[in-house]
Amino acid sequence: MKLLFERSRSGRKQTLIPDCDVTEFGFDSSLLRTNKPNLPELAEVDLDRHYTALSHETFGVNTGFYPLGSCTMKYNPRVNEAMAALPGFTELHPLQPESTVQGALEAIYRTGKLVSEITGMDDITLQPAAGAHGEYTGLMLIRSYHASRGELGQRTKIIVPDSAHGTNPASAVMAGFTVVSVPSNEQGGVDLDALRTAVGPDTAGLMLTNPNTLGLFDPNILEITKIIHDAGGLCYYDGANLNAIMGHVRPGDMGFDCVHVNLHKTFSTPHGGGGPGSGPVGCKAFLAEFLPKPQVKLEDGVYKLFDPAQSMGKVRTFYGNFLVVVRALSYILTLGKEGIPEASAGAVLNANYMMNRLKDYYTVAYPGLCMHEFVLDVGPLKKETGISAMDVAKRMLDFGYHPPTMYFPLIVHEALMIEPTETESRETLDEACDALIQIWHEAHENAEMLHNAPITRTIGRPDDTKAAREPVLRYQF
Amino acid sequence: MGSYIPSTGDERLEMLKAIGLNTVEDLYAAVPESARLKSLNLPEGLSEMEVAACVSALAEKNKVFRSVFRGAGSYRHYIPSIVKTITSKEEFVTAYTPYQAEISQGVLQSIFEYQTEICELTGMDVSNASVYDGGTAAAEAVLMNVDNRRRKTVVISETVNPGVIEVVKTYCGSRNVPVTVVPAKDHVTDLEALKAALTNETASFYFQSPNYFGILEDSEALIAASHEVGAKVAMGVNPISMGLLKTPAEYGADIACGEGQPLGLSTAFGGPYLGFMACTKDMMRKLPGRIVGETTDAQGRRAYVLTLQAREQHIRREKASSNICSNEALCAMTAAVYLAAVGPEGLQKVAKNSAAHAHYLAQKLSEIEGFKLVEDKTFFHEFLMTCPICPYCLNERLAEHGILGGLPVDGGILWCATELNTRSEIDNLVALVAEIVKEEASK
After folding, report:
1. Contact assessment for residue A174 and residue A203, using Cβ atoms and an 8 Å cutoff
2. Mind listing the pLDDT tens digit for each residue in B191-239?
3. Residue A20 to residue B296, Cβ atoms within 8 A
4. Is A291 found in the same domain as A436?
5. Is residue A291 part of a domain?
6. Chain B positions in Cβ-Cβ contact with residue A247 (cut-off 8 Å)
7. A224 CB near a chain B CB, below 8 Å?
């Protein structure tokens, strides 16, 4: 496909801005750029068609089934989009007087209350822009807490299981901690003995996803959080997998002190091809005074911004990805008291249904009941046929599906991580299972074709090594 | 109760049976009994009609100003219709991060185009795919050059947007990187104070031009002073000004970054916005965030992929250059479409008209007694002006006419104008201000 710059023709333009109606200001020539930026010059029709062509080369939840493990690619309801597009939200300046943004502050306040209830937390900030930003903010709560007790110098270590998302250790380092990795036990949970050995007076806290990235709920969770608390550390809940448990069990009731959730996963806001997301951070009351500036409070019927007493400071310039928050509010109001737990149960049911249909063909990494996702181990199939997780995933593209997450979690070497979400019908699940079973047969009968998959897309597998060794990161005119 | 689950209750029972279970509770057998939740304290679910009414009521409680003369980090510009048409295309809206290149060439190519446009705007060699906002862009930028051996400290100018300074302080504080704020003198960075603050331990210096007060800094001198001690310079710019003004690359900066919101994004009560970041080639492997590169497939066809991933958290874990995963992809696409729609001439026109309107506004306001430019310095589209009456009272009165006046700050009011504030709008504002001041004076 041609690039914008290859479609550009000198002199073409759109009439968007009127000529200036006042005297032009003459900047000193020493302040002016030498050449105009080489931006595309296109008629509106060509610009429109260019992006329409690009959209045809893009796969979204609206296009089809997207069982991307750990990403919770559920359907993004249209009413949420309509609400986020209301001028009463989009046209607000962030520095308008508080009296003129009462509805916006109320939206933030109410969404915060609802998410706090779902996570079992007492207070919350909706400012973080993404999950990793939320992790950083949550770890800053832990940091601020230890600092307030004069223990920061001593409590320098964050414990992270080896099955954790890569963002966990990276966030811990950004928050000034060092990382201690603990291994998983044979059931895929945290190895309690290893955890007991790892904790000590240097423990700042634990970061844990539960259910974990293997899709398993750790039955020892109460013991795990107790071990950390007994050592004087705090427990951080990575909400990446919250979609499994909403309304059934809450991080706050499992012993966690703070949590981030992904509105762009669990609360149905769209991913936008990699953002904007939103990663609110909830906490127990004793951590609330450390939350980022500013917070929203309700006083005598009036919503106000305020800075918490011992705030960690600002984590972004204004108040968060506000329009994403509006979408999540619309979603939670829609589902409500019964719909929220039903959504999670639906996600868990769909995952188990798929796993059950596939288990006679593929090796399930950790058999038994799974939560909202499960991991297939393609290792045995690879040994038998030479077909890898990559080959299976790429062949899925030919069947019109987005592939599952590949090669994650790292502790399963040929992992395919499948998360169907609750918004898929049984037929969709059956058809996707049929495709995966057919691929299993193809692995035994026509392995060569699978190595070359996908065969129906406009490109085949790109050369990643070349991209990294000889980086071409912009168009050269 | 609303729901987005397609299957019926009966179908779900059949599915439960298929996996050998009887009830939904059986799915949660692994959860310890004592931790299980009885019920959520949430309101009952609603139909779409009720939700729409409820959320719209919140929107209606807000005041949308017809005319806005306030910037201070968030700017209202004309957004061409094509921008929203394109960025609402559902494939773009509902896709995940493009890990699977074969099914994501559209998104990947759009990011590659965005990166190219940001390089063109700033004059830099390499751009990433975006970070969260202008504040986090500045924070990530100053940390790029910090190391454990020699370059351990960061210097930032007091004339940077105060919100951005605070974000930089948070990010540096957690890494135990000391931050020195160089004081302003006459609302620009004090060069002598900067020279005193810079040491051979300084990793980076961050400043912004136009600065928080709209004034163009002496970028050349600030950058030269920093390079003198071997510190890298990250320069914040308003992307609209890049249609006209000298680029960070022309001034010799090492990193260019800033708030990308003016490029086609609504002010939206502060977000979602867009942090853009670009740097010189030698710093490429220190740049945080996603980066898209060009390559080929086995048949030699051009293809785009996420690349240089050895910097990133999912490969490097605790050794990554940043923890960033989701960024602001759709906002970056918005900026890319905006820039392609206005083109080089259009961007220059937006910049010129904004500057012209701001200068016209300054001139007209200064004809009213008590309104005076605080500094006689070159500004872009914002300026600080004294106000003879209580600035909040003035703004309250203007609000009655649907006008959001400038931002009250220390020393006066920070006014802003863009191409949207036409001459008649400005004349109307100035007449109102004159009238209000007269009335207040006679009270």
Report:
1. no
2. 999 999 999 999 999 999 999 999 999 999 999 999 999 999 999 999 9
3. no
4. no
5. yes
6. 37, 39-40
7. no
